[in-house]
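Our consortium's second objective concerns turning raw sequence data into structural hypotheses that experimental partners can test. To show how far this objective has progressed, the report includes one record in full. It was chosen at random from the queue rather than selected for favorable results. The single chain below, 243 residues long, was entered without modification.
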Amino acid sequence: MIEFKDVFLSFSGRMILSGISMQIPDGRITAILGPSGSGKSTIIKLMLGLIQPTYGNVCVDGVDISRFSEEQLFPIRRTMGIVFQGNALFDSMSVSDNMGFFLRENLDLPPGEIERRVHDQLQFAGLELQAHQLPDSLSGGMRKRVAIGRAPIFEPKMILFDEPTAGLDPVSSKKILDVIKQLNQDKQLGAVMVTHVISDVISVADTVLVLYQGKLIFHDTPEKMQECDHPFVQSFLADPEQL
């Protein structure tokens, strides 16, 4: 479980997050929704310990990581996979080598175990035929599937997705959301999905958090959003394109 306890974050005197308290359980899909600049992606950076809160505590499985060193953060980060908005693939490496890179660099595993894990993730992502291709030869949706297939290779408990369907056409977006649901259902992985696309939230999320002007204004199921009387929630439900 990831927990924020009264988290404040400011940069150069500008308040980014203001008193955020929330719990994100294992084994569930949690979506974080909000307009550009509301602090959505900052939440992921705090979860990974890439930045530290100005005040408050960020806890992972009951351990406060708010002031951890890089060395202390390594085992924490191994419990979380990350899928960046830009995919963060190595252009000069094949799909297969991209999948196995972090295993080879960070874990002392036998070559056969690395090969097994890479094969399993290629199969899961439906990319066996593309294993020896370079990322630039793939469509945007396939590149995203490489990034998503790579994320569980450490066998984490939670996957963090930063705008997983950004820039994709509707068909590719649906395929990506189906993969996220499959990760949750087949591998019992929890997920945090930062997005501004309301249809994505309704499709896959068990729980929705809405950020607005650095504050958490909603934390409940997607169905309950219709009952929320906050003006911002009501306005984007009426006009989803505004996000």
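The partners drew two points from this record. The longest helix spans residues 170-187. Residues 2 and 24 are 5 Å apart (CA to CA). Both points have been shared with the crystallography group to help prioritize constructs.
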